[in-house]
Amino acid sequence: MNPTRIFSGKIRRIITCIGAAILIASITLYLALPVAALFLRTTPDLFFSTLSTPQVINALFLSLTTSVVSLAIVILVGTPFAYVHCRNEYPGKVIVDTLIDLPLVLPPAVAGLALLVLWGRVGLLGQYLSLFGISIAFTTLAVIMAQIFVASPFYLRQAKSLFEQLDPAYEQTARTLGASPLRTFALITLPLTANGLISGAVMTFGRALGEFGATIMFAGNLPGVTQTMPLAVYVGLEGNLSVGLTISILLVLISFAIMIAVRLLARGGTFRV
Amino acid sequence: MFDAAIHKKLRDFSLDLTISAGPGEVVVLMGENGAGKSSALTIISGLITPDTGLIRLDGTVLFDSGTGMNVLAENRRIGYVFQNSAVFPHLSVQDNIAFGLRARHKNPVFIRERVRHWLKTMNIEDLAEVRAGNLSGGQKQRVALARALATEPALLMLDEPFTALDAENIRLVKDLTRAFVTEMAISCLVVTHRVSDCRDVGDRVCVICKGKKEWEGKPENLPACTCRNGDV
Amino acid sequence: MKQLITTRQTLIIGIVCGLLLLTAFFAGCASSAPAQPVTPAATAAPATPAAVVTAAPTVQPVATTAVPVSTPAAVVTTSTPAPVYTYSEGNVIAYTAASLKGASPKLAEGFAKMYPGHKVVFNLDGTQALKTQVQNGAYADVFISASQKYTTELTKGGSFVDGSVKPLTSNYVIVILPANNPGKITSLQDLSKPGLKIAMADYSVPVGTVTYSTLSNLAKSTYGQNWNTSVFSNVVTFETSEPGVATKVSLGEVDAGFVYESTAAAGKNTYSTINIPKNNNVLQTYQIAVMKQSTGKGAATDFENFMLSDAGQQILKDYGFRPIS
Question: Would you say residue C138 lies in a domain?
């Protein structure tokens, strides 16, 4: 045994284990305790009784539908976009790259204001829509547009990164075997990137579900039309803390359910390379 | 019968090649890394367009800068095996082999029969349903070869097919390649940087240096060093 | 034997863990320390327009992360350990009803003039939000409430220094329209015209509560219940703070909004107004109080005195508030 070693192998191992355990525990607790506090602040009775109030049901329904629609649009439009963007060089590509990241650094209220000033009835483009009787602000559509604006970077960045990192040999081989670019994309590119795309989608959905600042600015707050769950929480904070808590708990449960479902799906699909 | 005359400006030098290969003939493209051999294959396959040139395969013009003819990569009857085999890891072995046939919309019964044939010939029948991502290097290479040959190409191209394999698999892949090229009477281009490969599989050798053909001839006559800077 | 990890690496890990433990220990000790007074304590989701002295609504620059949305976690304050004070001794942190936003720069100036060496920092937000934050442990020296109801609630909860709760000012509700009056509204009756877009504050916001009451009074006395129903069906958004209503009107995105007279006065050139008769209007009274938890009660009382002094009251009057009679 080397006499200059300070600790014996066994003690060293124990210390490392303890150190790792502390690190893991601190992070886990930091994330888990606030959530636990939510659950502990209410009672099951209170939770279920407020669950059936119109305010909660409306907010729940509205949040889920708008988030799902937003996600669908982001995926359907964003996936081909990310693919074309990655596989081609075109003038202004760098600018587009930067714009994709923009909503990430923009404060949500600023995003909402920008959308309002563009699409509102006296907005840059909105004023022309008003001529045709189309109004966007203060509608459910505005909620969806706000969600898409703030949440799309999560999916687009992920998709871009995945497509860029995919070994080009796979797509090239597919093409030499006779597959059209569309067939290649559908049968080769997508399955090989599915796992990552799904996780991007989960983040996007979560972001859309939790959107507040842009929503209240652009879509306003109207129960049943634009009052999503985060808005209902904030409004419900006074006078009806139980409503606020119930909705918060709902959001937590929904998020967990989605994430678990996605993990199970991904494992079953085994699209790992 | 395959011949190509291509010219393309690359980053460090210009690629300027004339290559030809008869049916059943294996032409080895030799040269150091970065000499432009792989780029030549990519151009011939149609994945990259040359600046000028003429590429013909079995009487069909695949590319002609004079007339503006440029057949899409998926429509050229060329089999291309990449350096890392590029088997589709998420598909089974038999789906891999069937991929090209399905892409060309062949009859399902025909496809099944062809896949069975190739599984047998490559001696990988027991791997039929295995996900290709789980195979060893040698097995992947055989699957890639089968996959390329299943579409009955007129030209087969292999890019450094032996570098990732052990000695026994190298032997195997070389034998298989030779056998099929002769049996199916297809032209074949093999890119490699190792001298031993030339003698084992090649009917003819072209030495490529910095995008130009420096020497061409029979493998047994391969000079000790042919590149101007003394490599090979 | 090949080592899994060298001695030096072990030492480094040990030091890092030790530092983490120390940090956790100190954080625990300081748990009753004032929460960052500038931003709303502990809320993850709402990017509330909490303005600090400036007029423009600054927002938490962190993108609202998704899940989970947490209400302010209950901060358990143990028996009074020495709090960590992030501001210098002469600073007063005033949790203030959002409707004082326009007046806040002048108020800050006036306070510094009257009490040199003292400074006030305003946390402006809807009174309902401020109340919840304070009830869950947020630190403030002074509380200015736009609603007697919330003041009473906080007083009952023991948040205020006894005897420090004083009436500060008052405000009536008024209707504002964008300057070019796109809705062609000339009277309160017009508010029930179909197709109009109206903004008002949510019932939980003080100005929202009085708006509801005022409308109810108007319906009972003059315009009828149908009118009331029609007005409400024209409402497109229940804002979470009074400035939110004003913003929608000033942007021209709604035809009318219900705000305080002070806000209308502050935006003289931006809005047209329609008065609501006093006998139907509900007078919102504001109260000011010193927080029991304040560690600078001297400065806090100075600020209260300033606000109640002629100088302070004049500034409020200049900004359209009505003095307490």
Answer: yes
